Amino acid sequence: MLHRLKNDFRLSIITLLAFSAMVGVTPFAILRLVQGNSLAFVIDVLILAGVALATGHAWRTGDTRRAGLLMACVATSGAVIIGTLVGDPGLFWLYPCLVTSFFLTPPRVAMGINLSAVAVMMGLGDAFRSQEQMWSFAATAIVVTSCAFVFAIRNRDQRRRLEHLATIDPLTGVNNRRSMDQELAMAVAKHERTGLDQALVILDIDHFKKINDRYGHVVGDNILNELVALIAAHTRRYDQLFRFGGEEFVLLLPGVGPLALKSVVANLQRIVRQHLRGPGGQITVSYGVAVLQAGETVESWLTRADHALYRAKDAGRNRVIFADDAPRESMPVSA
Ligand SMILES: Nc1nc2c(ncn2[C@@H]2O[C@H](COP(=O)(O)OP(=O)(O)OP(=O)(O)O)[C@@H](O)[C@H]2O)c(=O)[nH]1
């Protein structure tokens, strides 16, 4: 439970708000009952029920997006109704709701919920003693919403930037190893669920150290970028390329069965062979290929592809080896 709270920001906010709502709203619900305001009492109880429902849904299904939306709608509509029923004292409840909707839903959705709440409250008009009070309420509610909106947008952009920095290789712009671990785990899960074929190709530039030593790291960097550009231009939109480390890349090919895989890899090998050039001429690449097997883990899948790559290197480089194939079935370069 603590692990989920620590790792899921929106779930922790939903739980915290649910707890605050129970502690904050329950005494007022009792007060309304004692005062004989049964309508306000029923509304308070409905708010608590809505909050409990949204929190239960979030914990049960992990769907914090819908639970957050439900909670934001329940809380703001509850605050609008209470404000309209009890006037001044009820008005203040809308302010925490205006801020928390930005924690519960995306910024534009929260903005829509908040502006609708303010408009409905002003349209009904019953919550206000005078026009001046109504317009003061509108102005302060809009200031609070605008500030929270700007803060939420900045926060979202910074989070996206951090996610980008954490998952993209800065030199080549392809996904890094951290992102690869996640995607391979998802590919294995999808294979178990749907049976979709998943193939993995590890590509490693041959004698890259010599290229660096002879022509410098800038030339080496350019070759890495050229290889990435070639692969990107000749693979499908849903194929994914990752930088595994140094001059080694992993290509994940979903939906390519064992038969089609041979021609896909042969085609890739042909393209790279024809176009990848350095100052000293042609640059060769070795390939290790493994098709995901039933019940296999990511580690074992990667290890089989890696062993195939080692065999390609051992056999003289510049060739494709399929994991579990006999050595004679490797695909050396003919030209
Ligand atoms: N230019 C450049 N070089 C890199 C980068 N990352 C790793 N390298 C170099 O890649 C080279 C890898 O060398 P090795 O692991 O010996 O492999 P290799 O020379 O390609 O030999 P084989 O793989 O056996 O054909 C090292 O010289 C690293 O310094 C990078 O981002 N840019």
UniProtKB/TrEMBL annotation:
Domain GGDEF as annotated: residue spans: 196-325
Record EC number: 2.7.7.65
Keywords from the named record: Membrane, Transmembrane, Transmembrane helix
GO molecular function: diguanylate cyclase activity
Pfam family, one: GGDEF
GO cellular component: plasma membrane
Catalysis: reaction(s): 2 GTP = 3',3'-c-di-GMP + 2 diphosphate
Keyword Kinase in annotation: no
Gene3D superfamilies on file: 3.30.70.270
PROSITE patterns, sorted: GGDEF (PS50887)
Record field: transmembrane: 12-31, 37-55, 67-87, 134-153
GO terms, biological process: cell adhesion involved in single-species biofilm formation; negative regulation of bacterial-type flagellum-dependent cell motility
Cofactor(s) the record lists: Mg(2+)
SUPFAM superfamilies: Nucleotide cyclase (SSF55073)
Domain of life: Bacteria
PANTHER family for the chain: DIGUANYLATE CYCLASE DGCM-RELATED (PTHR45138:SF9), REGULATORY COMPONENTS OF SENSORY TRANSDUCTION SYSTEM (PTHR45138)
Name of the protein: diguanylate cyclase
Natural source organism: Marinobacter persicus
Lineage, broadest ranks: Bacteria, Pseudomonadati, Pseudomonadota, Gammaproteobacteria, Pseudomonadales
